[in-house]
């Protein structure tokens, strides 16, 4: 038996669910920061579309989920932890200038490269189109943001994606950004949990790291 008492809050399993955008952009930083403070905690991360994460929370398969849209199930609660904005991108070879303003008529005539139904990004875009009274039909649907960026670079259409994910392609000059003033593409990122779940110290600590990250 150890001669010194252990702090059992420093041990255990932390089950985290993350949407694809947050999983690629935020979660590696969060996990690294948390692990440096709690090296003996077993962190298990699942990266999936937002709608599947809600289902896993309801089945108690994960403790917390990080998503890009408000919740749908009444038995879950959500707390915003960061702001984000989607942007419209096209290839450098597309017949538009960088930051060119498109009319809704010009916009809806494009070929669309979109995230899959059920993703947070797709839900925000669909709601923006509904509010602007414009209907679009995707040419591509993908769970991969990288696939959408690469398809855009090849001038296969325009994509709607988080601004946080395009810096590299934009700095290389591979893509351009477009503006449609009628589309509201700002959003918040949320931490969600079951409303009846009592959070353990480890879970609270992970949430605090996320809220204080300023990413």
TrEMBL record:
Listed InterPro entries: LysR_subst-bd
Organism: bioreactor metagenome
Protein name: HTH-type transcriptional activator CmpR
Alphabetical keyword list: Transcription, Transcription regulation
Family classification: Belongs to the LysR transcriptional regulatory family.
Residue ranges occupied by any LysR substrate-binding domain in the UniProt entry: 12-212
SUPFAM superfamilies assigned: Periplasmic binding protein-like II
Biological process terms in GO annotation: regulation of DNA-templated transcription
GO MF term list: transcription cis-regulatory region binding
PANTHER family named in the record: HTH-TYPE TRANSCRIPTIONAL REGULATOR, HTH-TYPE TRANSCRIPTIONAL REGULATOR CYSL
Gene: cmpR_20
